[in-house]
Amino acid sequence: MAAAMVLLPGENIPTERLPKPKKGKLTLGPGLQHTPPSTISATTAGSLQVDHRKAALWLEDAGGRYQPSVGDLVIAQIHHSSVETYSCALTPHTSFAILGQLAFEGVSKKTRPQLKAADIVYARVSKASKWEDVEIECFNSATGKAEGMGQLKGGMVFDVRPAFARRLMMGTDKEGVSKGGVVLLEEVGGKVKFEVAVGRNGKVWVDSGSVRETVMIGQLLRGADEGGWDVEGQRKAVKKALRDV
Amino acid sequence: MPHATRPSTNESAFVLSALRENLRLDSRAIDQYRPISLKFSSDPDVYGQTDVRMGKTRVICNVSCEVITPYSDRKFDGVFNINCELSPLIGAGVEIGRPDQAELLLSRLLEKSIRRSNALDTESLCIIAGQKCFHVRADLHVLDHDGSILDACCLALVAALQHFRRPDYEVHGEQVTVFDVREREPVKLTLQHQPFCVTTSYYDAGTIMVQDATLLEEQCREGEIVVSMNRHGEVCQIAKYGGVPVDALSVLSVVKQSWEKVKMMDSVVREALSKDERERDKGGRMKAELSAENERVMERPVG
Question: Which intervals of the chain form a coiled coil (chain A) (predicted)?
Fold first, then answer.
């Protein structure tokens, strides 16, 4: 594999980097723009990722800003409630996202959850566009099930970079190797019992039995995020932390 | 639209329960400061610029001076101003030109700690009484806010004042010649003492006292006590603006704890200053040049 290529906004992708599509179609992911007839240029700064099998290209953005897109799982904080909606903050200092008061599993007007300001919920982005308010919901509107979403009680929320949160959520491929290169939570989960919810907006909610364990997990997350540990480094750090607890 | 972020109920409850078990989120001790990094300008001609980091909190200070006419009611004193403005760099909800309460308290505490305590001897800034004096100006900029900005600002300011050099001058009757940096070596300011601020945040009606709180810990606290003192144990001021009532004995123990922290901060500043002096004076040539000792020839005493 060639070395990772970092692109700045406005730079064009050299043709030798483009994958050969079987059906003649190339899929462009976030951060890339096509100017006909055959120029593909970067719109943000990031490293170029190519998937030859799917004939797809995109830019991995290591920036700190989260931009909501439909289908993302996020941890939202309620700011205030109005007649039929809650106004929630996904990221600080941006406009609020709207959460319908009835957007939970199996609720009616009489049995809905009473959320207060500063409560947090695990939700899914249902609508995200540049010109409208972002909308989120706490249940899958297609199936009507909560699927783990809803109010998060107790525990602690840790801030990480959105790119790190994305790696945490990538999951594992067929051989069991973590796709995002983050094995922290699995390693810790071998010894410590805890619940975790990862928000794509750069928030990780952790609830373990004891305060000490939650603090340890938070520190490991921060270390991996800011220190950029690779898989080996993460395993070593987890072993060391588990010894101290 | 920009709104200040408040921590969620889960976060504040967790921080409090962790503190009750004597745990902090970054595994520090309850009264432990984050590692303090103090840097001066790398430019050899620039004095009085400091960059202080306490964890993620970052403050820079710039001290400069010019020659002006002193105030008519203070003929024998120079002028010393501290300017500290918070900007939206540290978070939305902060606007330049519209100071909120936190910013007003920050300015007031810096004034009380440094100006009113006469840390900088303004009489030494006078050139010709009633006609010419130095106006020393300190500008503080907070670049990142993760708690303890007052402590960091005070440290940056005191270090910058100790580092700064004003131009040398000569007075002949009514004539004043202020020499440029290239003509004559600039002169250090006269500091009578070096005060530092220690902020103690408390929880559970004063039963838990925490030093160097991060932003999250500050947002969950019930109140704070700010003690300014120098390394000799001389207290410049104690401030407790509102907050949950605390009994007097706790305040006294806070002052005692603060003294230890002030000694620590003072040693950080001294070490950084001496390291910077050694680097600017490579080879020890300046010391040899500025020394007024003659070479003495040792002869055997007669008789």
Answer: none
